[in-house]
Amino acid sequence: MKHIDVLIIDDEKKFATMLSRRIELRGYSSQVCYDGRTALQWMEKHGNCVTLILLDLQLPDIYGTKVLTGIKEINPVIPVIILTGHGTEQDRQQCDKLGAYMFIHKPLKIDKLMIILEQIRETSK
Length: 125
Prior knowledge:
Blueprint: E1 4-9, H1 13-25, E2 30-33, H2 36-46, E3 50-55, H3 64-74, E4 80-84, H4 89-97, E5 102-105, H5 110-123
Parallel strand pairs: 1-2, 1-3, 3-4, 4-5
Helix pairs in contact: 2-3
């Protein structure tokens, strides 16, 4: 498996696909999973091949905090940015406790994401 810069876990297919394209237009690679179960299965196989994960809280099958817990069990050092349109302050606090790298409300500015991704890549060298 080749290295993936950004794993996007979001059930909003249009949003996730567009974000993936915008990331790839900037020279980075991405992978999209549309539900938590698929994302955790992907992580089981490829969890050491990804730089950054963008995780939505509102997934159709598993709430994002449970997916975050599963990701951290598979690879505790991978940065996970919670990206949500509906997250509460309580969600933010819980995600912080579970090891989220950052908690961002949608819409996400692609330039901000690219800066964050570059910072993560620099510190992981």
